[in-house]
Amino acid sequence: MKNVRAVRLGAGFLAVMAVVLATGRWQPVAAGGASGSGYRVLKPIESGDLTLFPVVRDDGKSLPADQFLTLDEGLKSGEVEVTEAGKVRGLVRSRGDGISQMYQGDQVNTLVLVNNSKRPLLLLAGEIVTGGKQDRIIAKDRIVPAGADPIDLSVFCIEHGRWTESSDKFGTSAKAANESIMVQPTVRQQAMVAKDQQQVWDSVSGAIGAMAKAAAPLPASSADHGAYGGTGSTNLNGAYSAGAPARSLGTTSYAKAVQSQAVAAKVDEEAASVVKSREEALETLRQEHAVGVVVAVRGEVIWADIFSDPGLLARYWTKLVRSYAAEELESGPAHGSASVVDAQRFLDTPTHGAEDSQGEVGVYRCLEVKSGGTDLFTLESLLPGTGYDVHISRVKLRGQTANSQMMRPVY
User: Fold this and answer.
1) CA count, 13 A, side-chain hemisphere, 341
2) What is the SS3 assignment for 112-178?
3) CA 264/CA 324 separation, integer angstroms
4) Angle formed by the axes of helices 310-328 and 278-288, to 10°?
5) Mean pLDDT for the chain?
6) pLDDT at position 365, please?
7) How many angstroms separate the CA atoms of 332 and 298, rounded?
8) pLDDT at 89
9) Which range (226-230, 242-246, 341-345) has the least confidence?
10) pLDDT band per the 50, 70, 90 thresholds, residue 409
11) Contact at 8 Å (CB) between 123 and 142?
């Protein structure tokens, strides 16, 4: 289904006055004049080169946080099942098996999902599912209604070199209970914006190489000999060139790399000030009715995730923060210190570019707007009793982001 609607996040989205960056408890920043959007930015908290600006609604309204089921919750409870396309027959309900005819075997960019819960399922681009023949990430934001037929779950592979089954069904990758992971923004961007498997693989390869270097820096005498991967590359057949970055961590899987002991410790270190007291942070977010964050790395504002209510933000908080912290492991130039004004300017980017809308009648609509060097994604729920934006992402376009192209499987 193709639909286009007006974007409600126009100029003046988060008009605020300049403030001095401060640590400690977040405090609201007075809005500078009428914002017209109902949102405002709070003072940031910083952890190393990572800066997070909480975002709140001016009206203080809170939508029901438990209306949607998350992927982590659904997989953990067993109410949501994800499997390779070739196993779809095992997911089809007794009312018929016609759906299974849609799938002609396992495919790299297709998994099948069924939501057996009594709540609609919220899926976010970049969420990781592990198992099957390769680890994958969700390709786009979407909503799956309760009790729906099995759906074609558009995905991208984030694990080169494996096409052998490790499990019948997929789960979330977690080193601890309730601590699943999401890919970092550079990888997420390729899935959401480029929509290109090769670019996803390239970004995964680069990310794993950066993780290896950050987790175990080399002596200067060794760095020039490519011991940590140099500029290794990947291709559509799953082969790595000599000295590919992933080899330094002994895996081609993004999930395994980021959860390796050395990398996980480094991510924890980078995010220490943000996650060291998770409950305290979440309580503060709830008190301030924060619904999202604007993200800056090394002083450059690169991303924003905004939800419909504080409850949803709290449920995604840890996995989002860790994904942002993983981004900090990538090398790059410093841009000074990001300010509230920088965050405002990022969110205020005019949304008058090319638009593309996809969705399902009566379920959801996802609008993408390209303009001003950014991409804005808005997921709107169309289910009965909703009719509001559930999740908004704004992405600063970095690196090579190409148009979608046909993918071919890796065996």
Assistant:
1) 5
2) EEEECCCCCEEECCCEEEECCCCCEEECCCEEECCCCCCEEEEEEECECCCCCCCCCECECCECCCC
3) 13
4) 130
5) 76
6) 97
7) 8
8) 58
9) 226-230
10) very low
11) yes
CA torsion sign for 199, 203, 208, 209 is positive
pLDDT for 24-70, tens place per residue?
A: 333 444 333 334 456 777 889 888 899 999 988 777 676 776 789 99
Tokens of 176: 């601890």
Residue 99: φ, ψ to 5°: -60, -35
Give the per-residue pLDDT at 350: 75
Rounded alpha-carbon distances, angstroms, from residue 41 to 196, 316, 411: 33, 19, 47
- Strand partners for 174: 180
The average pLDDT across 217-237 equals 41
Of residues 95 and 206, which shows the higher confidence score?
206
- Copy the structure tokens of residue 385: 């009793």
Q: pTM score, two decimals?
A: 0.80
Helix axes 261-270, 310-328, angle to 10 degrees: 110
Average pLDDT over residues 247-269: 86
Choose the weakest-confidence range: 51-60, 139-148, 171-180, 288-297: 171-180
Amino acid code (one letter) for 250:
G
Distance CA 379, CA 366 (A): 4
d(CA 389, CA 394): 14
- Spatial separation of the C-alpha atoms in residues 153 and 356, rounded to whole Å: 19
Say yes or no to pLDDT of 293 above 90: yes
Has residue 225 got a pLDDT over 50? no
CB distance 390 to 21 below 8 Å: no
Could you give the CA distance from residue 376 to residue 9 in angstroms, rounded to a whole number? 9
